Amino acid sequence: MGPEDLAHVLRPFANSLSPELLVGLHTADDAAVYQINESQAVVQTLDFFPPIVDDPYVFGAITAANAMSDVFAMGGRPLFALNIAAWPTNLPLEMLSEIFRGGQETVARAGAVIAGGHTVTDETPKYGLCVTGIVHPGRITTKGGARPGDVLALTKPLGTGIITTALKAEQAEQRDVVAAVASMTRLNDRSAEAALKAGVVAMTDVTGFGLLGHAFEMAAAGEVEIRIRLGTLPLLPGVERYVADGVAPGGLHRNREYLSANANGTPRASWPVDASTPQLAAALDPQTSGGLLIAVAPERLATLIAHAAALEQDVWIIGDVVEGTGVRATA
User: Fold this and answer.
1) Which residues contact 172 (CB under 8 A, 6 or more apart)?
2) Which 3 state secondary structure label does DSSP give 67?
3) Tens digits of per-residue pLDDT, 39-77?
4) In the chain, which ranges are E strands?
5) pLDDT by residue (tens digit) across 116-163?
6) Quick count: other Cβ atoms within 10 Å of Cβ 113?
7) Domain boundaries in the chain?
8) Rounded CA separation 210/130 (Å)
9) In the beta sheet, which residues pair with residue 319?
10) Rounded to an integer, what distance in angstroms lies between the CA atom of residue 216 and that of residue 263?
11) Does the structure show a pLDDT above 90 at 275?
């Protein structure tokens, strides 16, 4: 579902508030956070979708990594997860078992466990997880913490939506699919750990609304302007070639339309008309299990990079935060 449609259907919940609900629908963040006591709060999120790759095990692993990413983005640690699955009667149950195995082993890599779940019959297979984690109430990282002067860092290359769309169209080369799968199954635990060690207070994971869409969420929540340099964006292998061949997921067009539309009289995001097509497409591309977008104070940037290097986690510097509103992408 696109960002505009999602905002529309969530309107009835605008006044669903509670003092213990530290982060909920009123802040439009990555996960809900509910305070239990002075030192503990529960982080909870849910995500599911149809298969994006052919291998059932890999699909399960990608889905689990994607679902847990929201907990990491909030500065939390996953504890356990519940499976959510829809399965057609005309597909072998062994395939569903492989999906569950991929999910279980990925959750285990994060130090968490699968505690149960629910399955229904449906014509289209779907899989996802409801993930419960824990975080200290004073150490929550949110979309709204970015401040003017902050530097923007990204922890995974872009283009998973473009590559999986090429795969569905039987246009993808195997080596490109392998690289995309490796990225999507990699957890965001190390990048979150590096960010927390550097004292970061603002970050989000890059998923269905694309880099520019999630950057706009950070800009709106923090009442700042986010500037992104398209030329610095890391792309997965093959993305430039597929964009040149006209490959584009439907979500990319929805993201472009939403960000081009006005919010309070100005576009949510802007970019130069002569912007490099592959980089702009990748910035709008809906990601599955994308990296973290981190806003870090300049005096803490070296610490973030050092901790990331120690954890063998890549970090790309892609922009900064200034006074203003919305997102501005430059060449």
Assistant:
1) 163, 164, 166, 238, 242
2) helix
3) 999 999 999 999 999 999 999 999 999 999 999 999 999
4) 21-23, 32-35, 41-49, 77-87, 113-121, 126-135, 151-154, 202-205, 225-229, 262-263, 266-267, 269-270, 292-296, 316-322, 326-330
5) 999 999 999 999 999 999 999 999 999 999 999 999 999 999 999 999
6) 12
7) 3-139, 143-330
8) 22
9) 152, 228
10) 11
11) no
CATH superfamily of 3-139: PurM-like, N-terminal domain (3.30.1330.10)
Handedness of CA 9, 184, 162, 96 (dihedral sign): negative
Q: Report the amino acid identity of residue 206.
A: V
Residue 151: helix, strand or coil by DSSP?
strand
Considering the segment(s) 143-330 as one domain, its CATH architecture is Alpha-Beta Complex (3.90)
Evaluate whether 219 touches 142 at the Cβ level (below 8 Å).
no
Tokens of 223: 């009442």
* Residues 176/237, Cβ–Cβ less than 8 Å: yes
Identify which of 31, 17, 124 has the alpha carbon closest to the alpha carbon of residue 74: 31
CB atoms inside a 10 Å sphere around CB 317: 16
The pLDDT tens digits for 303-329 are 999 999 999 999 999 999 999 999 999
Q: State the chain's mean pLDDT as an integer.
A: 94
**Residue 187, token pair as written in the block:** 């957890």
